[in-house]
Amino acid sequence: CKKLHSNAKTSTVTEMFNPAQRSQRTKQIALLTIFTALYIVLRFIPYSILIGGGGTLNFSDFLAPIIGIVLGPYLGGLSVVIGNFSSIGMGKPMFFNGLDFVPDLMAVLATGFLMQQRRSRWAIVVAINAALLALFLVNPLTSVFVFSVPYAWLHIIAFAVLLTPISWFAAK
Q1: Which residues make beta-bridge pairs with 46?
Q2: Largest Cα–Cα distance of the chain, in whole Å?
Q3: How many whole angstroms separate alpha carbon 138 and alpha carbon 130?
Q4: Count of Cβ atoms closer than 10 Å to residue 148 Cβ
């Protein structure tokens, strides 16, 4: 009985100190740190002013889907959230009551889940996008028309494309 107990303890200890698992964690932490730092730097470089809204778009918006592809939805999402609030701590002004990271977070989650190539993950992306589009359309602060053009037209088209098989095959 003592030998069986010592073997169980040894296997747990060897699993805990397995070099392959430590190496994988180290790579994940390194990628998380690198992409978070890059995201912070790119948040300070504007490339466009928003039409019909306050604030600017930043070059970090281009990096968000790449973060989702490389790090996946969970680590990528963590990278975007840490990067956003770190840049605010470094003096980047907040827009939309501090929620200006939500589009980048959704881009990371969507690309990260779609890259996993499972139907259940695709359904999660569809549900998140449907909920956000519905909230966007019913929000009384959202102007439905800007210069007599529906403001949400591109969001609706993107959601329609998400519902087609194009989004499923794009990850392949």
Answers
A1: 58
A2: 80
A3: 12
A4: 5
| Higher-confidence position of 56 and 135 | 135
Strand duo 46-49 + 56-58: pairing: antiparallel
Q: Which amino acid is at 8?
A: A
The whole-angstrom distance between residue 61's C-alpha and the CA centroid of its chain comes to 10
Q: Please, which residues bridge with residue 58 across strands?
A: 46
Name 49's bridge partners.
56
Between CA 140 and CA 137 the distance in angstroms is: 8
Bridge partners, 57 (sequence order): 48
Q: Which residues contact 144 (CB under 8 A, 6 or more apart)?
A: 137, 150, 151, 152
Query: Does residue 151 have a pLDDT over 70?
Result: no
How far apart CA 117 and CA 123 sit, in angstroms, is 11
Six-digit token string for 151: 């403001």
Higher per-residue confidence, 101 vs 62: 62
In the chain, the amino acid numbered 88 is I
Instruction: State how far the Cα of 59 lies from the Cα of 167, in Å rounded to an integer.
Output: 24
Q: Are the C-beta atoms of residues 117 and 69 closer than 8 Å to each other?
A: no
